[in-house]
Protein: Catalase
Organism: Oceanobacillus profundus
Amino acid sequence: MSENPKINENSKQEQLEQFRVDDTNKILTTNQGLKVSEDELSLTAGKRGPTLMEDFHFREKMTHFDHERIPERVVHARGTAAHGVFELYESMKPYTKAKFLQDPKVKTPVFVRFSTVVGFRGSADTVRDVRGFATKFYTEEGNYDLVANNMPVFFIQDGIKFPDIVHAIKPEPHNEIPQASAAHDTFWDFVANNQESAHQVMWLMSDRAIPRSFRMMQGFGIHAFRFVNEQGKSHFVKFHWVPKLGVHSLVWDEAQKIAGKNPDFNRQDLFDAIEMGNFPEYELGVQIIEEKDEFAFDFDILDSTKLWPEEDVPLKIIGKLTLNRNVDNFFAETEQVAFHPGHVVPGIDFTNDPLLQGRLFSYTDTQLIRLGGPNFHEIPINKPVCPFHNNQRDGYHRQTINKGRVAYHNNSMAANTPAPATEEEGGFVHYQEKVEGSIIRTRSESFNDHFSQPKLFWNSMSPIEKQHIINAFSFEVGSVKDKSVQQQVVDMFGNVDLAMATEVANNIGVTPPTAEESSVTKASPALSQENTIKTQVGRKIAVILHNGFQDTEVKEILQGLNIAGVAYEIISDKQGFVSGKNNVDLQVVHTFTTTHPVLYDAVYIVGGSNVDDAFYKNASDFVKEAHKHYKAIGATADGIEWLESNNIIGDPGVIEGSGKQFLETFLEAIAAHRHWDRKVI
């Protein structure tokens, strides 16, 4: 291990620097370095003759263009990513020997990719879907990949069924419709006939499926892994990412409109926040179970359709992730990054979770076809910071130039090097778990309970969250054309909650279920987003101004918003500048035609003097749309009259007034995220 470089938060950035090229003010050349004299015209036989085969520049340019697109990921195709750093709060040495979890002084460089699961690369960000949250730690012992989702459970219990769930939820094969949506027959037919999916579907129908932002989204490692310490003692562990801005979501109507107004909404939100220096932060939490307690719960801890309730297994916060740099090139980094739950370091090991076991094969296999062969680890974004040496050779896109004749083990010509490392030298040694049994295709009976935890999830929801779940079921299952499938679904979810399933049945026109619902009465408050962190930091608001506005007060309020960590954009009827009563000019970012209220967390309306009918109507429509989505609305000066004329003054989260008191109250309303007690028509 002595050859390993000192790893710090800049190590990966420094390594990538050699691959970055700026073509500005450079001479045009071929990929072989030959200077090109003409790039507009092909080589032809005469002015009007055919293009010649010998035009090597045309062939190189066109061949590269033809091959610019690699196959998109089968799942998680649409994503965005950023670089960052991980800092440990306290040493985890009692539990694991993983070096990056030993010393709080060490900062580990990371690369994080967020994604939707179902949609193609060209789909929208705000569809109802599971989200990926994959983190690559560039450690001195090699790359460690924590491949997580924003939901702690999965649809299936065994990896062999992964192709089935993906085939079912993807667009139907006869017409490739619908895109990025579960609202179709094959998905719900799968659900009804594979009832282990019940828990994941409850999460999918909840607000968790339409996050406000990647900055406000949790991540879960899903599987039970192992921590192994220097003494060889093992603990079961689950990983959580907890956003410091809290966990917040869109409302469904808003999400659908955003998909049309700005399909890159979540991508742009993350990119803009980092560019402005508002670096997203997430704390790493772990749930730890001693081996002796493996069977101490009323669920199987290795079942990926089950979570470990935090009331039973407390969450221990151990570190912080900060995303502080956007990518330089989307394709080279975000598109080519390759994650794999099998990329581990000493001190982190696997369990017998059958879904995890399947993923350990699948991830390598899919990278081989996506990235052109076995050397995807040499692509800059995937390359470890620490050195790597082995007897692997050749293959597509090999970059390493291996010297010497020996490429096998054992050998004498190279003194039997590269040589394996002992465990004391940092060599990875699998945890020695005793395993015995017949060779058989079966599933443990401890995996058979499919409805207790969905009921736990339902019990944990607030009334408004429950109503959103009912609305989501009604929309999704209501989009199914096969009445038999609809009936099967409501019958199935009657096992979770009869009242919920009955309301859905009535909404979609099928027979209410008569199933015996789960008797679970336990709830887990940690599962409700109503109990999350609530802060105004990181929010974005629309400020509606017209010429003649009260500029002294507005400047003070905008300054206060900025100090409080709130971003804002000024909206008026024309781009350029809008002038206040004291000739203070503020730049207009958008007009009513270039933006929309669904793209903001709140609205601050001021207005101005001599407002015409068109401006008044546009501003009123803007405010009404925000009001309909339960967002905070603030008004000062002329804006107060607009609230009165639109009959929304005095509603929860609608703040009017002036000065410091207005600002403080408005910030509290923004931090609340939504005002569900508001009556919306």
